[in-house]
Each structure stands twice: as structure tokens, then as C-alpha cells.
């Protein structure tokens, strides 16, 4: 019942907002085709070429240091084949999300927000790969997008959100807890509203909505738990200066770990604490990838 009340309040916040970023129709069509196992590279490339901005963006990214191609790729079709449909889907949605909020003022450090988001994506993909999750690109993308509600709240309610962040500075309160106290709703519900506005797949919307309450996820509990654990790791170990976050796992993280161990036949660690230490061992490699992704997507 509480979730329903929080969703009602989140939708009220949207009611008077008229300048929300939109996902271009051509992008929605391309993403749908990239999700279609029957679609051919020729058909997708033809559709992408009908939007020169979109086509140029794919060419720019595939030739960036992020992918380290041996020679320049100047064909959209070659880019599709080189990257794979799922990677192109992830790259397009991420880049349009970044662009949509690039010039919107925030009461927090947007560079740290993006680094945290890209880190959560990279760590989600790493965890997914380690446990043989069938779509690691999906884990990567939803890991990046899971906190989109913070960007909405920070921009459209800048003063209130800034006051909220100031009030919890140097405390153990999380932004999730503080948002509920200040707004009666959180970035999870607001993020769900954005995801629905942009016609995200239902599994993405569900994870955005429940990454702080993974036990309530219905679409993909395992991926929700993966993102929840990656999110906690990033906020407590990587970018604690961006948003206040408790450094000790709470109920949400314990629930995420419980779901994770129930659904993974051979977890990579025996306990949540050991699992977080295990991620420490991998983060140096992941952080280099995040730097490349950040520079590619935000310039």
C-alpha cells in the first residue's frame, strides 16, 4: 500500500513538468529492432541512416578508445556487426539519456553521478558475467540507468533536493531515506515514471522501481539483486562524496544478497561481506573502463 502512495506522489511531481527530455521516435524504433532476433543488420542500418545524428553517434563511439578497433569503422552496418545488437542498444539508450539531462542544473556533482552510474553498470555486468546471467549487456544498461530518478528530482526540485542533501551530509542517512522524508516518494518511483514515459522494457522499469526493495521485484529478481548490490558497492566504496550512503549493508542489501544466493547455483563468495571484498579485487580494471566510457559518452 505504501508503494502505491509513493507512486501517486511521484506522478504528481510529473504533472506540472512540461519540458521533460523525450526519446526520439527513431531511437525507439531502432531499439525495438535491436531487440528483435529476426531483424537483419541491413534493415537496422538502413533505419539508423535515416537519422544522421544517430548514425554519426554510433560511428563516433565505435571508433573511440572504449572499443579499441584495429582500424577505423565508417559503416553503420560494420559497427552493428562489430559491436553486436545488444551492445548497440545499450550504447544508444545510454547516450540519449546522458544528452537529455546534460545541460540541466543539479544541486550535486553530475560528473560524480555519471561515474557512479557507469560504475554500477560495469559492476552489474561483471557480476552478471561471473554467474552466467544470459544477457550481460542488459545488466550493464540497467545498471547505468537505475538512478535516473535522482536526475529528475535534482533538476526539477533543485532547491528542495539541495536542502535535503545538505541535511544528510556527514550522516549515515541514505538519499533514498531522505527523499522519502522530504518528498514522500523516492528516485525509484520517479525513475519508474521516467522509464514508462520513455517506453523502456518492463524489466528495466521494474528494476529501476525496486533496486532498493529487490524482494518486491517480479520481472527479474536476480538482475534486480545484481543491480542492488552493484549500487550499494558504488555508493559506499566508489563515490561516497556524491550522495550520502550508509557504509554498512542494510535490509535492502541483505535482501538482495539473499535473493542472489537463492537464484545463483554457485555464488562467487560465501557471504555478503566477502562478496564486497571480491568486488574490490576487480575494481581497478573496471575503473579504467569507466573512465573511458565517461569520456566517450559525456563529450
Number of extended strands = 0
What's the pLDDT, averaged over the residues?
87
Oligomer: single chain
Approximate shape: globular
CATH architecture descriptor text of the domain at 2-15 and 105-297: Orthogonal Bundle
* N-to-C SSE string, H for helix and E for strand: HHHHHHHHHHHHHHHH
The CATH homologous superfamily name of the domain at 2-15 and 105-297 equals: Hypothetical protein af1432
Biggest β-sheet strands, sense, barrel: none
Structural class: mainly alpha
Count helical runs. Answer: 16
Briefly say what this structure is.
The chain is mostly helical and 299 residues long. It has helices at residues 2-15, 25-34, 41-49, 52-62, 76-83, 85-101, 110-130, 136-145, 148-156, 158-167, 175-183, 187-197, 202-210, 221-238, 251-263, 272-297. The mean pLDDT is 87.
Describe this structure in words.
There is one protein chain. This protein is mostly helical. The termini are far apart. The chain has a domain of 207 residues: Hypothetical protein af1432. 69% of the residues lie in helices and 0% in strands.
Task: Itemize the secondary structure elements and their pairings.
Elements: H1 2-15, H2 25-34, H3 41-49, H4 52-62, H5 76-83, H6 85-101, H7 110-130, H8 136-145, H9 148-156, H10 158-167, H11 175-183, H12 187-197, H13 202-210, H14 221-238, H15 251-263, H16 272-297
Helix pairs in contact: 2-6, 3-5, 4-5, 4-6, 5-6, 6-8, 7-8, 7-14, 7-16, 9-10, 9-12, 10-11, 12-13, 13-14, 14-15
Amino acid at each position: 500500500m505504501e508503494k502505491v502512495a509513493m507512486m501517486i506522489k511521484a506522478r504528481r511531481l510529473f504533472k506540472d513538468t512540461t519540458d521533460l527530455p523525450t526519446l526520439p521516435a527513431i531511437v525507439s524504433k531502432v531499439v525495438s529492432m535491436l531487440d528483435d532476433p529476426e531483424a537483419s543488420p541491413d534493415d537496422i542500418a538502413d533505419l539508423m541512416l535515416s537519422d544522421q545524428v544517430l548514425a554519426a553517434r554510433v560511428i563516433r563511439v565505435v571508433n573511440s578508445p572504449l572499443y579499441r578497433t584495429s582500424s577505423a569503422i565508417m559503416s553503420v552496418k560494420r559497427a552493428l556487426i562489430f559491436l553486436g545488437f545488444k551492445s548497440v542498444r545499450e550504447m544508444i539508450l545510454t547516450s540519449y539519456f546522458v544528452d537529455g539531462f546534460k545541460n540541466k542544473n543539479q544541486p550535486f556533482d553530475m560528473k560524480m553521478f555519471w561515474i557512479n552510474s557507469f560504475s554500477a553498470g560495469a559492476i552489474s555486468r561483471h557480476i552478471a558475467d561471473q554467474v552466467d546471467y544470459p544477457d550481460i549487456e542488459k545488466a550493464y544498461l540497467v545498471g547505468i540507468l537505475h538512478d535516473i530518478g535522482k536526475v529528475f528530482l535534482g533538476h526539477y526540485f533543485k532547491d528542495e533536493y539541495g536542502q535535503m542533501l545538505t541535511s544528510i551530509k556527514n550522516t549515515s542517512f541514505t538519499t533514498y531515506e531522505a527523499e522519502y522524508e522530504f518528498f514522500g516518494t523516492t528516485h525509484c518511483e520517479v525513475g519508474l515514471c521516467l522509464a514508462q514515459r520513455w517506453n523502456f522494457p518492463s524489466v528495466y522499469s521494474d528494476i529501476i522501481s525496486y533496486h532498493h526493495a529487490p524482494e518486491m521485484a517480479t520481472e527479474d529478481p536476480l538482475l534486480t539483486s545484481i543491480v542492488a548490490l552493484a549500487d550499494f558497492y558504488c555508493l559506499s566504496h566508489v563515490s561516497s562524496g556524491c550522495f550520502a550512503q550508509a557504509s554498512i549493508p542494510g535490509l535492502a542489501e541483505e535482501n538482495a544478497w539473499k535473493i542472489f544466493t537463492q537464484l545463483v547455483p554457485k555464488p562467487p563468495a560465501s557471504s555478503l561481506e566477502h562478496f564486497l571484498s571480491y568486488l574490490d579485487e576487480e575494481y581497478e580494471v573496471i575503473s579504467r573502463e569507466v573512465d573511458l566510457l565517461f569520456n566517450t559518452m559525456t563529450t
